[in-house]
Description:
elongated, five-stranded antiparallel sheet, mainly beta, single chain, Immunoglobulin-like, 11% helix, 4 helices, 3 domains
Amino acid sequence: MSPRRWLIFLFALALGLSVGVAEPERAGGQSVREVIPAGNNLNKAVEELSRHSDVIAVANSMQADPAALAAQALNGKAFMESKNVEIRFYGKVVDQNEQPLTGVAVQGHTREWRMKNPFEPEGKFMNPVALTGADGLFSFTRLYGDSFQIHSIKKDGYIISKSAKLGYSYGPLAHFYQPNPLAPEIFHMWKTNGAVPLYVVNISMSIPQDGTVLAFDLRRNRRVTLPGEDTDLRITLDQHAPPGQRNARVPFDWSFVLEVPDGGVIETRDEFMYLAPEQGYQPKWVAEYPKDAPNWKARREVDFYLHNRAGQQYGRLAVSFKVSAGYPTGYLTVLGYLNPVGRVLEYDGRLKLQPELINQPKPQFGAPNPAPAVNSPPANGAVSSPPPSSPPPGSPAPPPFGAPNLPQPPPGFQALTNRGKALPPPVPVRPQ
Length: 432
């Protein structure tokens, strides 16, 4: 046998492609590599190996000592075997109320190492799928590789939590992931109810931080300044920094109060605030931050569910407030959505509700001013004057709205240009 053919056979032995011995198949009916059927002699085995283009390419390109090549091939095989450990994974899918979900399709993603050629391993990827049972449980077993990922978790009408852990590393050492069927990994999904028309809340403004109470109409995104107007929130910001202090990082006493005149709020940490609770609302929420608090800070962000307006309106709000030392104002941001008729709070921009008009439309140019109301109460205690009487018959008509109040010209007066010439008479327009 020629040296080249001996070198090919040596590579085969290093990779486990032995003559007459077929490698056992892995679980699922997939073998790691092609093997030579039993019963062939040495020459036929080498002929079979010669058809493998990757083996021939390496044999022709390498000029090293055959023993060194064999050692390198054995190292590659040892690397591959150290990576390919058994993969077992156990999980459970529940909804936002910790109830198990059945019929959820879970797709995994595994990486198994194989030899691309006698010296180069490569990762092969598989995507197995499992379905959850009535108890929400699922599992993946009889897989091999060094990593496992959750590629997708799908069920109609639900979305997966953004905080779910999706990647896991497997290996022979203790610091790698250790599966436990008695403690499955928990995955939360949130039920969607379909988008409905909602008001959009977007308030961002400086507010006094001296204890002044501010009222807000969230549907119209504005402050309420007149009595009797719709009020959704009352907010009070109060800080007590020492006089002259302008460093907000030095702790000082401050507080924030949020009130709902006709309803209440619930502080929440729900990831998807798509459905407001029916009960549990409190009319006032207070946050106090003394200067000696262990986790003192000058800013706070809180999420709330809102319920007000005679029990008809529900909403979700993200409220952010900040105090400043040495300045008259702090800062307030209120973002969210309001449903005027129900608890569903899933938003679609195509269904945005517009607030009702609260001001009378402005009069068009040239329209007469509205007549003052007769017997209307005087403003600020001033003495009211009697309404003007009607002009006597035969008197000239008043000038149109917007015209200057100029004296009327005498009879027979002719309008002159700036050159002293009389203007020509108007040309009559022939009817069409």
